[in-house]
């Protein structure tokens, strides 16, 4: 794979049907839960990206076997105490915050010392958001906030009460999974975030009670003796389809049908935000699969876009999509305002900072703070300059956002580190070639 990509031409009008790759959150969750089940889980359409393959490597290192067959991955679980690592085993979460934060929860009952490492980007990210509450269960950590760190579990972790204030599904999931390993009832008050874990556990008939209010979910979860194996066919990822949604909205005379996407309402913030900006998007063929909403997304060119003062209630359900939403704001009439978004700077790269930087390179006026950005939109925006995107910690979403900007606004782009897409969406450029 060449190290960089050059884009010198806008995309021509298109009318196509595509399928994007499988949902990353669901892929990682199914692997980790399968590693705790008793018996053989079968997962089809698993996302074969580095983050997900690292999840398979990690469970393998902890003693859980898996096998790839023609139609699915088989994972051979030995139950909630089935990990059997040697002392000082090193596990590598690579680039994945989700894998790093979730795997720690599954180690709170492992009495051997385990070392968790990650790549350059993950080693800059905050782990105290999970180590602080996981300590309450009784687990011990060598370092509070950054990788590398050691964890040592205990025979009888205690249930906890905890208030998760960030709206982080990674933290919420980590606590729910840890609670499964206790003897007793844990109570978690959580700011709204994606709900895949709760839905999966309900499907596995695990007793989890959830009371939903406007801003918070009150979750009660009891430790269990056993988890049944999973049989799961993973739908497409809305976060991957986001790049193609925006590509179509910002292109002339184009239309795209994106098939079989997970449209869990806790993930569809991008659709709600873009519709408010007058984008032409419709969901068709809606159905429910194992408690998750799934549908096809039909999107068309939209030439009457207007700015948005984005309601913060959409923040967590669009958290991975803001970079491409900023591109739509750049082409909308008026000034858009996105606020309370400090979490964006805790992702694979500081994304609020990078969003602003790329808009500056494009010549789009914006004012950025630690947790907000104002974008001065221009419906006639055309780029004529040379733009070089580099040193962005190989954040996959920065790479893909830049490609979409080049294909829709023009200019002459050189975007480094093409291999960054391998973490979440290795087929991104291949699908793009089908559309072009
Ligand atoms: C994820 C949750 C989000 C998201 C990440 C995947 C998950 O992170 O940004 O890409 O699978 O739970 P936070 O929960 O930390 O916001």
Keywords summarizing the entry:
12 helices, globular, 4-stranded mixed sheet, 29% helix, 436 residues, alpha+beta, 22 strands, binds shikimate-3-phosphate
Oligomeric form: single chain
What is the count of helical runs? 12
Could you tell me how far the N terminus lies from the C terminus, measured between alpha carbons in angstroms?
19 Å
Query: How much of the polypeptide forms β-strand, as a percent range?
Result: 25-35%
Average pLDDT number: 97
Percent helix, as a range, is 25-40%
Query: How many strands appear in the DSSP assignment?
Result: 22
Low-confidence stretches: none
Structural class by sheet pairing and helices: alpha+beta
- How much is the radius of gyration in Å? 21 Å
Biggest sheet features: 4 strands, mixed
What general form does the structure show? globular
Spatial ordering of strands, largest sheet? 2-15-17-16
Bound molecules: shikimate-3-phosphate
């Amino acid at each position: 794979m060449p190290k960089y990509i050059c884009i010198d031409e806008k995309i021509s009008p298109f009318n196509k049907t595509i399928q994007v790759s499988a949902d990353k959150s669901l892929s990682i969750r199914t692997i980790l839960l399968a590693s705790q089940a008793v018996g053989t889980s079968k997962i089809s359409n698993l996302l074969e990206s580095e983050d997900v393959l690292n999840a398979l490597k990690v469970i393998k290192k902890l003693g859980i076997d898996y096998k790839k067959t023609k139609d699915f991955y088989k994972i051979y679980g030995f139950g909630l105490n089935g990990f059997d690592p040697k002392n000082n085993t090193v596990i590598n979460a690579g680039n994945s915050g989700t894998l790093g934060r979730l795997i720690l929860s599954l180690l709170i009952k492992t009495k051997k010392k385990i070392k968790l490492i990650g790549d350059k980007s993950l080693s800059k990210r905050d782990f105290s958001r999970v180590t602080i509450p996981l300590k309450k269960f009784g687990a011990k950590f060598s370092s509070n906030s950054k990788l590398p760190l050691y964890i040592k579990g205990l025979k009888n972790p205690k249930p906890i009460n905890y208030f998760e204030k960030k709206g982080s599904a990674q933290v919420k999931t980590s606590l729910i999974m840890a609670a499964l390993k206790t003897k007793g009832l844990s109570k978690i008050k959580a700011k709204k975030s994606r709900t895949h874990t709760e839905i999966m556990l309900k499907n596995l008939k695990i007793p989890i009670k959830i009371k939903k209010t406007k801003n918070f979910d009150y979750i009660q979860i009891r430790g269990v003796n056993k988890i049944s194996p999973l049989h799961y066919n993973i739908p497409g990822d809305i976060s991957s389809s986001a790049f193609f949604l925006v590509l179509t909205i910002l292109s002339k005379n184009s239309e795209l049908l994106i098939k079989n996407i997970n449209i869990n309402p806790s993930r569809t913030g991008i659709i709600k935000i873009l519709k408010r900006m007058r984008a032409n998007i419709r969901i068709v063929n809606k159905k429910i699969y194992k408690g998750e909403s799934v549908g096809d997304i039909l999107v068309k060119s939209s030439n009457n876009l207007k700015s948005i003062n984005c309601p913060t209630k959409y923040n967590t359900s669009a958290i991975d999509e803001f970079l491409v939403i900023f591109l739509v704001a750049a082409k909308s009439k008026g000034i858009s305002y996105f606020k309370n978004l400090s979490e964006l700077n805790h992702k694979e790269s500081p994304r609020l900072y990078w969003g602003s930087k790329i808009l500056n390179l494009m010549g789009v006026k914006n004012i950025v703070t630690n947790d907000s950005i104002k974008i001065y939109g221009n419906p006639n925006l055309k780029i004529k300059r040379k733009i070089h995107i580099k040193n962005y910690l190989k954040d996959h979403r920065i790479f893909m956002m830049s490609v979409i900007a080049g294909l829709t606004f023009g200019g002459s782009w050189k975007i480094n580190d093409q291999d960054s897409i391998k973490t979440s969406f290795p087929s991104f450029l291949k699908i793009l070639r089908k559309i072009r």
